[in-house]
Specification:
Elements lengths: L2 E5 L2 E4 L4 E8 L6 E8 L6 E6 L6 E3 L7 E6 L4 E6 L8 E9 L11 E2 L3 E6 L1
Parallel strand pairs: 2-11
Antiparallel strand pairs: 1-3, 3-8, 4-5, 4-9, 5-6, 7-8, 9-10, 9-11
Length: 123
């Protein structure tokens, strides 16, 4: 059974940092592109960042470029999202997702999803 479990969310102030982690089980991450997405109430889930295997290609939403860094620890089967200089508009539930293959793809092409972790940034 495939499971993606996010952790590291919380309540922080604007300008602070958080590090999210996504632990995968039931699949070998070497075959998957890993992505981070976020969603706020009443809005569609949106792309945040993605990283290929083994981690030399990364993609970011314009809104987080220069502040967020996605990485993967292939030995531990985890993917991380380092979020710096957080803003109130970064408040959302953050999800990690896995897509088999080497191309980042669209959101609906990600096959496996975690349950999400809440990030709240107070201004």
């Amino acid at each position: 059974q495939v499971q993606l479990v996010e952790s590291g969310g919380g309540l922080v102030q604007a300008g602070d940092s958080l590090r999210l982690s996504c632990a995968a089980s039931g699949l070998t991450l070497s075959s998957y592109v890993m992505g981070w997405f976020r969603q706020t109430p009443g809005k569609e889930r949106e792309f945040v960042a993605a990283v290929n295997w083994p981690g030399y290609l990364r993609d970011y939403a314009d809104s987080v470029k220069g502040r967020f860094t996605v990485s993967r620890d292939n030995a531990k089967n985890t993917v991380n999202l380092q979020m710096n200089s957080l803003k109130a508009e970064d408040t959302a539930v953050y999800y990690c997702a896995a897509r088999k293959g080497t191309i980042f793809g669209l959101i609906n092409q990600y096959e496996y999803w975690g349950q999400g972790t809440q990030v709240t940034v107070s201004s």
